[in-house]
Amino acid sequence: MSLGSRQKVVVCRDLGPEVMPLLYERKDLEVVAWLEDRKVERSWLLDNVVGAAGLLVVLTDKVDAEVLDKAGPSLRVVSTMSVGYEHVDVAAVAQRNIRLGYTPDVLTDAVADLAVMLALMAGRNGGSTAALVQEGRWPNFSWAPFGFCGPQLSTTPISPTRTVGFLGFGRIAQATLKRLIPFGITHCIYTSSPSSAPSTALEDALLQEHKPTLQSVRRVDLDTLARESDVLFVLAPGGAGTYHIVDEAFLRKMKRMSVLVNPSRGTLVDSEALTRALREGWIWGAGVDVVEGEPHVDREHPLVKEPRCVVVPHIGSATFETRVGMATLAAKNLLAGLAGEQMPAELDVKARS
Amino acid sequence: MSLGSRQKVVVCRDLGPEVMPLLYERKDLEVVAWLEDRKVERSWLLDNVVGAAGLLVVLTDKVDAEVLDKAGPSLRVVSTMSVGYEHVDVAAVAQRNIRLGYTPDVLTDAVADLAVMLALMAGRNGGSTAALVQEGRWPNFSWAPFGFCGPQLSTTPISPTRTVGFLGFGRIAQATLKRLIPFGITHCIYTSSPSSAPSTALEDALLQEHKPTLQSVRRVDLDTLARESDVLFVLAPGGAGTYHIVDEAFLRKMKRMSVLVNPSRGTLVDSEALTRALREGWIWGAGVDVVEGEPHVDREHPLVKEPRCVVVPHIGSATFETRVGMATLAAKNLLAGLAGEQMPAELDVKARS
Lengths: 353, 353
Hints:
Two copies of one chain form a homodimer.
Chain A: E1 7-11, H1 20-24, E2 29-33, H2 42-48, E3 54-57, H3 65-71, E4 77-80, H4 90-95, E5 99-101, H5 108-123, H6 126-134, E6 163-167, H7 171-180, E7 187-191, H8 200-210, E8 216-219, H9 222-228, E9 231-234, H10 248-253, E10 259-262, H11 271-279, E11 285-288, H12 302-305, E12 309-311, H13 320-338, E13 346-347, H14 349-352
Helix pairs in contact in A: 2-3, 5-7
């Protein structure tokens, strides 16, 4: 197939029947796509990216200087179907005056849904009780007054307050808080990055929106966050500044009946310390969608072996609605970038590199 | 120990350190308790119930004519720590002018919490993905655009409406609806027992409370309930009138991306039909806290073997807060009944027998 006057775009995954036509229907583009349902082969990418104007990747696909150099000066846009961009060498992209699109925000609701699921599963022994049924052990259990019990997320007359804590208080945290209000959550505490200004306007707005159930919203220090949370959500960005921010010292301060939920980045939590916290009863339970070193987390991983820990394989954004939304946004970013127009979601690569 | 003027009460389980003192501290009672953490032995019960004035049971303990006759005319109160009373021969109790206490309402919030957990797990493949991690298979999975995807509970811009359906619309159903509103639920449909009057007042109150997210609340027939629900909660009483009300015909009408949640009674759902519905893709997934024939549900049970079905072992009310609440209410019912006072929650046995 001759290039003619068409621009080449390389697409590193099949984005499905609802999104691929956005690209295929464009007569001015030559679409070269890796359509297998597995990670693109590096050699395929290096061969095909030569002379491309646009490159659409997912988070398994490393976009480094080698890829950019292979593409050559024709490459004007990289678009990733992800909210994170750790797989992209942002400095190298900036240096070559390439634009970078990503897909923030569209996955907020899907991740918040999963955060609620994990909080409930961690408290209610959802992992260990489902496993017990799978193993055929239900018939061995007769009903007992406190059998299978865990702490209740909802308030009750004998336990009328609940404090949810958020380590990081961005959009996903706020969407999670909103979902928890009808469970009777009375207090919300959070930490933000030290550089961000206090936002009493945000706190006031949340109180106004969720009164009378919610009685307080407070920005606190890490120590208070650990000590006061009944349910603690880790929802901060990764990177050196937050590496193992949930460590042994943090976990030892938590309430014995509390649960920890991590739907953000595995590196934020020290897995060894969390394992000890669960095994020795410093906290009640945990639900994690992410684990440091994933997906190389096998059945011998201490968190996988710990009955009080629910581990799911990074499915935070894994809904059809959200993934179609992400893929659509990635395609639109690519097309807008090629046309020299404003991209729906462009990362400011000069500022980030 | 001599009875003296004290009344004997037989307690068939250890109700824990927060509740047993309510009974032990009463000088006018002789408390005879089965303190082992397993079902009371029938022979122990028959031996010890002789001459008792009060009997406190849980739902594993059959209270039939034999038990009542063994107790003799001294027995004035039976108190069960459960919302259900299928284990009690209500007619035999009524015939002997014995009062019966039970524990409705206190478990509403715990069950509603679990209903939300199961709805999320059923949609988001919470059972099969957690099992995959347990089996050590996470390292085999590379991220894929639609890997592990399921239907999203929350609305999204490309999917802006959600209909939740309730087969039965009592307190637990309404508490579940309340929890789902922040997920963006736009429509609620429900069925009630044919004998109950339509309640436009209730519908109006719910709309008023949950506007503008919730746009409609409608009582419908079973056919409409099956056809229109995105998430369907089975929350009706058991018994002959609802036996296998969710059968093959019902399931075949449901949406292909819908999920079914049963936190109420196993007999309401035909397990064989549900297995086929999941295996053949009539619906997306299911989450069940109850299964017909439980706890004799082993690893060969078709629903346990079905990856799209999350099965937990009847943990609806299994939180410390709720079980302490239920045990406290059961003890108070017993004491009030013995004193000839109004019981906090008494079943009208004459009307039910």
